[in-house]
């Protein structure tokens, strides 16, 4: 069956790409961005004064950290760096032709590289989110009651799910971006501004941002400032399928571009 062959090829490509992620020094910056919040949370847990260790304060502090740094910056930047280089990096290193000469459909190569990137970014930031969340609350005397009797576990699961979904959605966007543009810095900065400032956009425009759909899953809302245009976030039952369908569309477009891709190393 062709599907069985394609699945095996995707697995093989993903394993090969994951080894490159783990061994290459150029991804040190991604590790730094992902693990930075863990270090900050640990320092805060050790030195925060008692008045900042109350549950309401900790809950709001973590919501701010996750939404303003982890979601809108760390995951975004990690996905931008990793996925825009999925094919561009091979072109610059003059190794892309090895993939293109294999007896695999080019769409399979796209999916294999995408699966590897999502696994790498998703696990890295989901782990960072998990550790940071626990460390933030570790300084509170109510840690046990919050997690085992209160909403702590529910909050943790939802934050980790949002980190994973953000990796999936941004991965699809930046996979396509890396194939459309030689200089990916400009579109990445434009997308970062779009995602960061979407709270001030009219409701119709907010629908064209990843953040808009992820906010429905977040357990704690934050104050987005006096310029925010408050809109009702979509239901997770609607928002998650929309994100996944959009990601599928980005991957399909990436597959179409790679199908017609010609290796011209001299042009780069």
Question: What is the structure about, briefly put?
Answer:
It contains 11 helices and no strands. The chain is mainly α.
SSE layout:
Layout: H1 2-23, H2 28-47, H3 55-92, H4 96-100, H5 106-138, H6 143-148, H7 152-180, H8 185-196, H9 203-206, H10 210-214, H11 236-259
Task: Describe the fold and architecture.
The chain has 268 residues and is an all-alpha fold. It has one domain. 74% of the residues lie in helices and 0% in strands. The protein contains eleven helices and no strands. It has helices at residues 2-23, 28-47, 55-92, 96-100, 106-138, 143-148, 152-180, 185-196, 203-206, 210-214, 236-259. Helix 1 crosses helix 5 and helix 5 packs antiparallel against helix 7. The longest helix is centred in the first third of the chain and has 38 residues, at 55-92. The radius of gyration is 20 Å and the shape is globular. The two termini are 38 Å apart.
- Percent range for helical residues? over 70%
Query: Secondary-structure element sequence?
Result: HHHHHHHHHHH
Task: Give a count of the beta strands, DSSP E runs of length 2 or more.
Answer: 0
Averaged pLDDT: 86
Q: Which quaternary structure do these chains form?
A: single chain
Task: Give the helix/strand class.
Answer: mainly alpha
Strand content: under 5%
Number of alpha- plus pi-helical segments: 11
Distance between the first and last residues' Cα: 38 Å
Shape summary: globular
Main β-sheet: number of strands, strand sense, barrel status?
none
**What's the number of domains?**
1
User: Radius of gyration, Cα only, in angstroms?
Assistant: 20 Å
Could you list the spans in which at least 5 consecutive residues all have pLDDT below 50?
none
């Amino acid at each position: 069956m062709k599907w069985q062959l394609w699945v095996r090829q995707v697995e093989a490509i993903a394993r090969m790409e994951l080894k490159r992620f783990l061994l290459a020094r150029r991804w040190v910056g991604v590790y730094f961005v992902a693990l930075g919040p863990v270090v900050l949370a640990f320092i805060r847990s050790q030195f925060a004064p008692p008045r900042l260790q109350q549950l309401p304060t900790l809950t709001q502090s973590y919501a701010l950290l996750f939404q303003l740094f982890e979601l809108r910056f760390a995951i975004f930047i990690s996905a931008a760096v990793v996925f825009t280089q999925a094919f561009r990096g091979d072109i610059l290193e003059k190794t892309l032709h090895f993939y293109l000469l294999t007896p695999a459909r080019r769409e399979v190569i796209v999916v294999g590289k995408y699966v590897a990137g999502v696994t790498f970014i998703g696990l890295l930031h989901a782990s960072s989110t998990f550790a940071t969340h626990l460390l933030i609350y570790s300084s509170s005397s109510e840690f046990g009651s919050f997690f085992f009797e209160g909403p702590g576990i529910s909050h943790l699961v939802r934050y980790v799910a949002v980190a994973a979904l953000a990796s999936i959605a941004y991965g699809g966007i930046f996979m396509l971006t890396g194939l459309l543009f030689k200089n990916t810095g400009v579109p990445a900065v434009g997308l970062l501004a779009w995602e960061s400032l979407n709270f001030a956009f009219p409701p119709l425009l907010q629908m064209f941002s990843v953040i808009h759909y992820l906010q429905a899953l977040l357990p704690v809302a934050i104050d987005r400032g006096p310029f925010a245009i408050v809109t009702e976030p979509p239901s997770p039952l609607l928002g998650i399928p929309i994100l996944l369908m959009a990601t599928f569309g980005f991957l399909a477009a990436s597959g179409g571009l790679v199908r017609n891709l010609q290796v011209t190393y001299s042009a780069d």
